[in-house]
User: Fold this.
Amino acid sequence: MPGLLEGKSALVLGVANKWSLAYAVAEAYRREGARLVLTYQGERQRETVETIGAELGAARVLACDVSSDAELAALRTALEPDGRLDAVMHSIAFANREDLTRPFIETSRAGYLLAQDVSAYSLVAVSRTVAPLMSAGGSIATLSYLGAVRVVPNYNVMGVAKAALEAVVRYLASELGPQGVRVNAVSAGPVKTASARAIGGFSSILDRVAERAPLRRNTDPAEVADAAVFLASDLSRGVTGNVLYVDSGFSIMAL
Ligand code: NAP
Assistant:
């Protein structure tokens, strides 16, 4: 049976290591037959992501710090010879560790702007970079979290950035829809990754979800990846501007 992404070309930004949600997404895209391009941020990560790319059978591994307009322009130039691009996964966020452990009211102006730049504005910049390559339409997806719409202890400045990210998804979906480009977010339940470890008290969040979520367990990265496959595939051709929760149902609970 042909894969759901057979004949499609996909770009995944945000693989740092095998625990990254982007890794699970890249693996699932490949399983479904997509041609894969990965990006890494900075020389420090190059070797690791090149090794991961080789294991996953990625066609190319390119540099891209999403806070640099020059690197985004270079990414576009590097992708152009490949021809059409069909799917993009933006799996990127950053905030200073101190802003994820101290009271929200203590957030500095610089820390606030940094979180917004890397975690929300970058989806605007990435979309502007890739949309012209989506000559047959396409799918742009990002990863959000419940902290965008509810207060999660210590998520703080990142919750505000995710709220912006979800609004960015809607504005981009509205503008890119006429050219057949869909833009959506997956709101994933908490998963222990390098970024998640920076959030104060993260382990207790995992315990709470396993106890309260309708499915009584935490989110498996493979579940997030399969939802990403759906959004990248033609099965979701009528879906844009949405936030799809893949969180064992935790977000529906009031108590
Ligand atoms: P992760 O493995 O640490 O991934 C975060 C990625 O963002 C890393 O690859 C990191 O690269 C990259 N990044 C940060 N700043 C960047 C920049 N300026 N340019 C390019 N890349 C940059 O953690 P993750 O949990 O998989 O996070 C992926 C996404 O899922 C994030 O948007 C996160 O908010 C979201 N999410 C996570 C959870 C969770 O519980 N884990 C739940 C819901 C949503 P470096 O490592 O090289 O800095």
